[in-house]
C-alpha cells in the first residue's frame, strides 16, 4: 500500500497552461505539505495544511493554489505556467500539527516540465 | 535570514569506514533538526530527529549530534556500505514550527 501517492508522475506542458497535481495519503495524518525541488536539488516548502486549514504559506506566486478537499488530500493547482515552474514537486504528510517535531512521509514526486 | 550549509556537495568514502556529514546553520537555533535520505528519482525518507535540548541520538548504524554553541549537527554512518550511497539532507525547524528549511544536501558515495 502506497502511503503518500501523487499523480501524475510526469507532467509536460506548454507555457501559459493551467495544470493540477494530486496528492493523497492513507496514513491518517492531519498535516500535508507541498515542496518544490529545483534543478539544483534545493527542497523548499511551499504550503502546509492541517485538517484542511492553511498553516504555512511561503512566498510563492499566487499562480500556485493548494486545495484540500479533506485531510487525506492536498492538490496543487498552477495557473499560467512559466518556464521557471519546471521542477519536481513533492507532497508529504505528518502526524498531528507537524511543523518539524515529527517525521514527514514524502510522496514519489511529480516532475513538471514547462516548454 | 537563516542560512544552512552542508559539507561538501559530494563525499566519497571507502566501504566499512565511518561517513561524517555536517549541517551548519547561521542564525536562529532550531527547535528540531531532522535528517533525511533521498535516492535519485525518489522522495526523501526520514532518518532521525534531534531536539535542541538533546546532544545525541542513535539508530542502528546512524548517529546524530547537535551542538547549539557551534550551530552544527553531525550525522555519522558507521560501517558504511555501498547501499548507504544517497543524498542526505538536514532540515531545521524554528520559530515555533513556523519556519522549516532543508539544507542543500550532501551526496554520499560509498565505494566497495
Molecular structure report:
The complex is a heterodimer of chains A (115) and B (112). With 115 residues, chain A is mostly beta strands. Chain A has a single domain, classed as Immunoglobulin-like. Chain A contains no helices and eleven strands. Chain A starts with a strand and ends with a strand. Helix content of chain B is 0%, strand content 57%. Chain B is globular and about 40 Å long.
CATH architecture classification of chain B: Sandwich
Largest interface: A-B, 24 and 24 residues
The main sheet of chain B comes to: 6 strands, mixed
Low-confidence parts of chain B, pLDDT < 50 over ≥5 residues?
none
Helix proportion of chain A? under 10%
Rg of chain A from C-alpha positions? 13 Å
| Overall morphology of chain B | globular
What is the string of SSEs of chain B from the N terminus onward? EEEEEEEEEEE
Integer average pLDDT of chain A: 91
Kindly name the structural category of chain A: mainly beta
The whole-angstrom Rg of chain B is 13 Å
Count of β-strands of chain B: 11
Brief account:
Chain A has strands at 4-7, 10-13, 19-25, 31-37, 43-50, 53-57, 64-70, 73-78, 87-94, 105-106, 110-114. Chain A is mainly β and 115 residues long.
Amino acid at each position: 500500500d502506497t502511503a503518500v501517492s501523487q499523480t501524475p508522475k510526469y507532467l509536460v506542458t506548454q507555457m501559459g497552461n493551467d495544470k493540477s497535481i494530486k496528492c493523497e495519503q492513507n496514513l491518517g495524518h492531519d498535516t500535508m505539505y507541498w515542496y518544490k525541488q529545483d534543478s539544483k536539488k534545493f527542497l523548499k516548502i511551499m504550503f502546509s495544511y492541517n485538517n484542511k486549514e492553511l498553516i504555512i504559506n511561503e512566498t510563492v506566486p499566487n499562480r500556485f493554489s493548494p486545495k484540500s478537499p479533506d485531510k487525506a488530500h492536498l492538490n496543487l493547482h498552477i495557473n499560467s505556467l512559466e518556464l521557471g515552474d519546471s521542477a519536481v514537486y513533492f507532497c508529504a504528510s505528518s502526524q498531528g500539527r507537524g511543523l518539524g517535531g515529527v517525521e514527514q512521509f514524502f510522496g514519489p514526486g511529480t516532475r513538471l516540465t514547462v516548454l | 535570514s537563516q542560512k544552512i550549509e552542508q559539507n561538501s556537495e559530494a563525499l566519497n568514502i571507502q566501504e566499512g569506514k565511518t561517513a561524517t556529514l555536517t549541517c551548519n546553520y547561521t542564525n536562529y537555533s532550531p527547535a528540531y533538526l531532522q535528517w533525511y535520505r533521498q535516492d535519485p528519482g525518489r522522495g526523501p525518507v526520514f532518518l532521525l530527529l534531534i531536539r535542541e535540548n538533546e546532544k545525541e541520538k542513535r539508530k542502528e548504524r546512524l548517529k546524530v549530534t547537535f551542538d547549539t554553541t557551534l550551530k552544527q549537527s553531525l550525522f555519522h554512518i558507521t560501517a558504511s556500505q555501498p547501499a548507504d550511497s544517497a543524498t542526505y539532507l538536514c532540515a531545521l525547524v524554528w520559530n515555533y514550527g513556523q519556519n522549516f528549511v532543508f539544507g542543500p544536501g550532501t551526496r554520499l558515495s560509498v565505494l566497495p
